Amino acid sequence: MNYFKNYRTTIFLLGAILIGGAAGVIFGTKTSIVQPLGDLFLNLMFMIIVPLVFFSISSAIANMSEMKRLGKIMGSMVLVFLATAAIAAILGFAGTSVMNPLEHTDTSAIKELMSKSEPSADTEDVTFLGQLVKTFTVSDFTELLSKSNMLALIVFSVLFGLSAALSGEKAKPVTAFLSAGTTVMMRMVKIIMYYAPIGLGCYFAAIIGQLGPQILEGYARSFGLYLILAVIYYFGFFTLYAFFAGGSQGVKVFWKNAMTPSITAIATCSSAACIPVNLEYTKRMGVPKDIAETIVPLGANTHKDGSVFGGVLKIVFLFSLFGKDMTSISSILSILAVSFLVGAVMGAIPSGGMIGEMLILSVFGFPADVLPIIAVISTIIDAPATLLNSAGNTVSAMMVTRLVEGKNWMKRSLNREKTVS
Fold first, then answer.
1. How many CB atoms lie within 10 A of CB 414?
2. Which positions ≥6 away from 60 have C-beta within 8 Å?
3. Per-residue burial over 70-91, b = 16 or more CB atoms within 10 Å of its CB, e = otherwise
């Protein structure tokens, strides 16, 4: 019965997305009339993001009886995130070397688009250390209550959970409150997901209706290249990651539970909005509760392989437009390093990434008025990028479990399921 329910949800969501996409293609910008229905779903998801992230992370850490396990989880997470992001950066640069996004493209049309667009954020200089401070901390507690400061919220949640765990018996009431809060928030997620087919279908219809003309205005080659990279990484490397995590059984379990999180990612274009769905389906993959509730929220903000691909594409795009050398070792290393960093600072919200884009302009010395160029790239690759960003966290959680609990974790998970059923 649970197996049927999993796939029934996937079928409903997929049907809604296909219908919405078809409506977007047929009716074009007229589909904007249904966007409020899609925005309603996104707003409901965003509304619960802050308390959900706080309760899930704090509770997971506070309930850890062994600090040694927490250290092992965090260490394994860093190793997995760095390794997969490095692979994405190298693969992305290799792709742009084979298929330059601006080859045979009329750059005058792009420059005309740039002249007609205005940056949507201040173009002040961004220093590396200054950006790190702004990314991981805020100057006032009330700023933690915004989804725009997710990394700062996660830092606070980790410290809060760690403090509760270290306080021992005196903090038991707080620990119980955090656990109860997590249960309530996950129940809210299930209630909101009843509206998901309608909300996602309408949102996707409006996005496709507005995005269609942009894809045809000189960016089709970039979009095509990104899709090729996304398909290779999604089906090829995710399968390899799942195999590393649990062998052939790991591959089977991953793909059995990957579709609903993937569809949600494509439809919402938001890693943050996917956190509740990813948490549920990561646990269905057999990942322990404490690992899932640590990796998924953290990964939504610091592990974005799709954004790494996007960073490479944007940098190469600008290098080609301004005729900068991309063949020297220093240029290649700088492209890989900055794209790697962009993948960690990109905002986990629809069409996010302004911070990362400003970082690119600052590091390589490009003029501020080229911001609209890469902003358009962000828009057209948003859906497949979010797919890689979000779905990658589920298979990363499996790999972290493999490192923390050993190679037989999948077998033990399946035995626990049989015992419960």
1. 14
2. 161, 289, 290, 293, 294
3. bebbbebbeebbeebbebbbbb
pLDDT digits (tens, 9 = 90+) for 327-377: 788 888 888 888 887 776 555 444 446 667 777 877 787 776 677 667 667
Residues 6+ apart with CB under 8 A from 44: 192, 195, 199
Residue 187 structure tokens: 């129940």
- Say if residues 132 and 117 touch (Cβ distance below 8 Å): no
Residues 312/89, Cβ–Cβ less than 8 Å: yes
Q: CA-to-CA distance for 366 and 368, rounded, in angstroms?
A: 6
286 close to 413: Cβ distance less than 8 angstroms: yes
Question: Who's near 266: CB < 8 A, 6+ residues apart?
Answer: 17, 204, 383, 384, 386, 387
Q: Which residues contact 230 (CB under 8 A, 6 or more apart)?
A: 306, 309, 384, 385, 387, 388
Q: Which helix (H) or strand (E) holds 348?
A: none
Distance linking the first and last C-alpha atoms of the chain:
11
Query: Are the CB atoms for 268 and 274 separated by under 8 Å?
Result: yes
Distance CA 300, CA 373 (A): 25
User: What CA–CA distance (Å, rounded) separates 54 from 356?
Assistant: 25
3 CB neighbour count, 10 Å cutoff? 8
What are 155-203's pLDDT values in tens digits?
Answer: 898 899 989 988 988 999 999 999 899 889 888 888 888 888 898 888 8
**Whole-angstrom distance, CA of residue 29 vs CA of residue 24:** 7
**What phi, psi does 271 have (nearest 5°)?**
-65, -35
Beta carbons of 317 and 102 less than 8 angstroms apart? yes
CB of 306 within 8 A of CB of 386?
Answer: yes
d(CA 281, CA 261): 7
CA distances from 86 to 2, 136, 141, 331 (A): 37, 22, 34, 16
Tens digits of per-residue pLDDT, 129-160?
A: 776 677 678 889 998 888 777 778 888 988 99
Instruction: Assign 3-class secondary structure to 257-290.
Output: HCHHHHHHHHHHCCCCCCHHHHHHHHHHCCCCHH
The residues, any chain, with a CB within 8 Å of residue 42's CB and separated by 6 or more, are: 199, 203, 268, 270, 273, 350
**pTM score, whole prediction:** 0.71
